[in-house]
Amino acid sequence: MQQLPSKLKEKLPEGMTASDLKAAIAAYHPALESLFGKDMGLVFMFTESRILMATLMRLMKKGIAALPMHDGIMVPISSKKEGMEAMSQAAIEIISKVLHSTEKTVWKPEY
């Protein structure tokens, strides 16, 4: 990152540069420092999409309707367990790790 996006710059302490921010992130998350400047964001997004597609395919084979959402899926309450299991199994298949998943309540209007 050579230059801070204006919306991000507005939220940072006055005078903080892109280099300062990069150093602060590296100090807080040292394991990430070696990944800076390597365009890993696209690799991570592709990995996430592979996990999501594998999850959707597993559920489709079981006849369970699922909608893809950013970082997750939406399934009927009656299929919650199967949805979470499908995502865990897909993560193991793609990255050899279990991902922690949580249920998020969907807002619904009161009539």
Overview of the molecule:
The chain folds into two domains: 30 residues, no CATH class; 56 residues, no CATH class. 50% of the residues lie in helices and 5% in strands. The chain has four helices and two strands, in the order αααββα. The protein has a two-stranded antiparallel sheet with strand order 1-2. The longest helix has 22 residues. The radius of gyration is 19 Å and the shape is elongated. The relative contact order is 0.09. The mean pLDDT is 92.
Offer a few descriptive terms:
111 residues, mainly alpha, 2 domains, two-stranded antiparallel ribbon, 50% helix, 5% strand
The ordered H/E elements are HHHEEH
Measured between the Cα atoms of the first and last residue, the distance is 48 Å
Q: Tell me the structural class.
A: mainly alpha
Radius of gyration: 19 Å
